[in-house]
Amino acid sequence: MPSDREAEDPTREQQHSPQWDFIVSLYAEPDIRDACLALQNMGGIDIPILLAALYASAKQNIRFEIQDIREMDVLVDPLRKNYVLPLRAMRTAPKREAVPNANSGLGELRTKILEAELLAEREQLALLDLYISRKCPQAAGGSNPTDTLKRVCDFYFARANIDESTARNIAPSLEILSKAILSGK
């Protein structure tokens, strides 16, 4: 998701979309970045799907069912498998394996890889925004972002066979996200 530097870069076209503005604003909230990383790393959750669904639920009154989450996951799977995950693996490898060297270009390389990873995630968000606008009906009686959070998590937790211990470890991250969404972000 967006870095502090990228969140301040007004030259990015997608930053002018309501979805992107919502995500950047939410991600800037205290503890949200760490909560998203915990959900991603421990729960196997695709964070662009989660954030796109939360935006649509909170701001566009769209209700999501598990089938919608499944279809969104299938839609972005090629981008995730071919770009996001390999880029993330490359970006994190230098941190684990590199020997610090002041003359090394690894820091710059890691930054460029991060930029490419974020661009791939933004492509996911663009696909998801298009899918949501075409496929998902507005909820008749109003949507509930907390229900959306639960449905997205249920989908990924079931797929990852999350055990009770991991679920307990993830619970604080869910609470942080839920509070931020309910506070009106």
What does this structure look like?
The two termini are 16 Å apart. Helix content is 74%, strand content 0%. It is globular, with a radius of gyration of 17 Å. Residues 2-14 have low confidence and may be disordered. The longest helix is centred in the middle third of the chain and has 32 residues, at 66-97. Helix 3 (32-43) packs antiparallel against helix 8 and helix 5 packs antiparallel against helix 6. It has eight helices and no strands. The chain has helices at residues 4-7, 18-27, 32-43, 47-60, 66-97, 106-135, 145-160, 164-182. With 185 residues, it is mainly α.
Labels describing this entry:
single chain, 185 residues, mainly alpha, 8 helices, globular
Layout: helices, strands, pairs:
Blueprint: H1 4-7, H2 18-27, H3 32-43, H4 47-60, H5 66-97, H6 106-135, H7 145-160, H8 164-182
Helix pairs in contact: 3-8, 4-6, 4-7, 5-6, 7-8
Class per helix and strand makeup: mainly alpha
**What is the overall pLDDT average?**
84
Which ranges are low-confidence, i.e. pLDDT below 50, for 5 or more consecutive residues?
2-14
Sheet having the most strands: none
Shape: globular
What is the straight-line distance between the termini? 16 Å
Treating each run of at least 4 consecutive H or I residues as one helix, how many helices? 8
What order do the SSEs take from the amino end to the carboxyl end, as H and E? HHHHHHHH
- How many domains? 1
Q: What's the gyration radius in Å?
A: 17 Å
Beta-strand residue fraction? under 5%
Strand element count: 0
